[in-house]
Write the structure tokens for this entry.
Amino acid sequence: MFRPARSAAMVAAVLSTFCLTATQAGRAQNFTDIKPSPQQAAWQDLEFGVIIHFGPNTFLDREWGDGTASPNVFAPMQFDPEQWMRAIKAAGATYVVMVAKHHDGFCLWPTAQTGYSVKSSPWENGRGDVVRRASEAARKFGLAFGVYLSPWDRHEPKYKNSAEYDDYYIAEMEELASGYGNLVEFWLDGAGSAGHVYNFPRIIENLRVYQPNSLIFADAALLEYADIRWAGNEDGTIPYENWNVLDRHGYLRWRPVEADTPLHKQHWFWHPNDEATLKSVAELVTTYEETIGRGGQLMLGLAPDRRGLLPEADVKRLEEFGAVIRKRYGENLMAKEHTLLHQPTDAALDGDPDTFWSAPAGSHHTVLEANFAKPVTFDHSLVMEWLNDGQHVERFRIEAWTGKSWKSLVEGSAIGHKRIDHFAPVTASRIRLNILASSGEAHIREFQIFNAGSDLGTP
């Protein structure tokens, strides 16, 4: 496979930029001093991604392969990644991560590093490339694309020797990083590994030569090397008020959270007769509100079947889920009903997340109020901070005017990228975001309200 030449100056420039950012992050004394990189801020705006598991496990009714399966089992007869992407787009997702190699070591692209790949399978007479076809289909449908390359490899004999396997893994990584366009995300799964020690600094440094803008997913233990952190579970929930800055042994870094969960309960790969595990629309909406609605990223796991297609029931559920979210959060009553004051505060009330309102410079407490020409009934709120300058809001309340006093609807600490709250329906002609404490002046991208109700249908 063709690999672009790397000059010493090019390597030094990429690594010095990365190291400078990390060093500055490490010197900061307070969480609120840490700011996201432009790449992290852009990635957080993507909000909803999917991860696709497909391989020998699909054909053997397994979740984890042991690396002994014959490449001959990989034989999809109706492989169509565009069908996947249409369903993904309908669900409202904006990016795709393809599992290029799972723990069994089978590669879904024709790697030069091993024969244990699609080039040894009967699919397309050994000339196919799942990763390329998936990347092309994703971009055709306007979806960003990334890859998952399992560090754990249960097939490759070199795995027994850490140094030899690092060379092998990095060579595979460089093929993916140099041959499939810009990668929005690179997944480093921490599963398994059987005591193997990886040279993560070397792996990350090599990746950044080819993909300086790719964000690296890993658990919190790899604080110095990764850009995204795991939520800590595969349930599709962020079970805490979410702060973007992580402190590990006094080393602070901006590490936004990504919460992964499969569309089928506890199943990442396709299994026959598995319709009963398909999550309901109501469960998926809860997942949405407990990930994206808690300032994080939703990563939903999808699994093509033995045909190479997403099952019809999965496609239907993704379409239903997307339709409910669009309906539930499609009519922002704040932008529709609030009285324009032609003041800077309008930027937080206009329904446009590309604009934001800033509280007075140096302030630590402020109020953002909206007035309506007539009373409005609502039961959900959505607030977004502008995070480019860091996460500042430390305590807030959302309050509605009862005619005599302000009634508290929501009280919390973190807002972050996006916070969604629901409460009993309330009718009011005035509502306010009362920022009770912030480390510096607050920056609010959006303050929205909705009358979403609770009827999510029966699927």
Summary: The two ends are 47 Å apart (CA to CA).
